Automatic annotation (TrEMBL):
Its main location: membrane. PROSITE patterns: ABC_TM2. This is Transport permease protein. It comes from the Bacteria. It is found in: Cell inner membrane; Membrane. It comes from Pontixanthobacter gangjinensis. The chain crosses the membrane at residues 61-79, 138-164, 176-199, 205-226, 238-254, 266-288. Residues 55-291 form the ABC transmembrane type-2 domain.
Amino acid sequence: MADQAHKSDNSNESLAGNSPEQETRFPPRGVPIITGINRIGLWSLYIKEVRRFLKVQTQTIWAPAVTTLLFLVIFSVALGRSGREVLGVPFASFVAPGLIVMGMMQNAFANSSFSLLAGKIQGTIIDLLMPPLSEGELMAGIVAAAVTRAIMVGGAVALAMVLWPGVSLAVAHPWAVVWFGLMGATMLALLGLLTSIWAEKFDHNAAISNFIVAPLSLLSGTFYVIDNLAPMFQTISRLNPFFYVISGFRFGFLDQSDIGNTTEAVLHSAIGLGVFNLVLAIITYRVLKSGWKLKD
């Protein structure tokens, strides 16, 4: 009888989930199983986002390259036909770097501003919020995919421009090309993620793209040097972060820029742009962590 009672007690402990084997196999509720960075989850999210835009690469990669090349053709024919030079180089070579990084920034915004917004509209946002990913990992995966798309678009645009007669893309400072290209893409990817959190329909996303991103990119010295502007408008241009991205990226190719012809001036702008992106990343992280308009 004692043996039966002992077996009965053991079986009751097993049913209650208090056996020593289960306590070692399963941690208590509320204790995370995944510690540190969830590398598998982060990589899965990144691949998901990359595959999403690669499925329609004609629209997401090659169409922006063709559109940007048309800008080059139009402005080269309109302004560069008479052999006009800007910053000591032909107009086509002057405008080409700005168009490349402008295309990169606009497509980084387009990619990151779609992910969460599409999930909210289609009712699939739970697929992004339920997996064991922290807010930082969720942000990193979406931003990294947007930067990847920006790099692909930049490569496609550069390839098309190299084939265009009269355009030289010889690199003078590789570090400036890499740094300002990545910082510009990251800045717009973070801005796009903030937009996707705030927006409730595609019209909201389009409003930010048409009334903020497009004007700031087009009025940032892509097609002109700001020295040609009145002093007040020069000051306004220098308050535009897009201006430093485009001028710094152009410095990497031409060794000339509106920021200043010295490497020290461009370095100061590079550091300032990095700090600006860090602040923007912290803001984006805090908004994402708060669950605003995502978990309501």
